[in-house]
Design a protein that fits this description.
Acyl_Trfase/lysoPLipase, two-stranded parallel sheet, single chain, alpha+beta, 60 residues, 3 helices
């Protein structure tokens, strides 16, 4: 978690089985956006997260 914080991680996408990592990150790294991909219903949220945060990386 400290490494992710020091690297400036702004978002985490957790792949199946999902839920545990996102819960830990929410407590340890407040402000980091998370999406747990638990079912096909979560794909749009995951794609949105990737799009918004990849633009930050490319523009930096």
């Amino acid at each position: 978690m400290e490494t992710m914080k020091s690297l400036g991680v702004t978002a985490v996408l957790e792949l199946p089985p999902a839920g545990t990592l996102v819960g830990l990150i929410k407590r340890a790294l407040p402000g980091v956006e998370t999406v747990a991909l638990k079912s096909p219903d979560d794909i749009d949220s995951a794609l949105d997260l990737i799009k918004r945060h990849s633009e930050k990386v490319v523009s930096s």
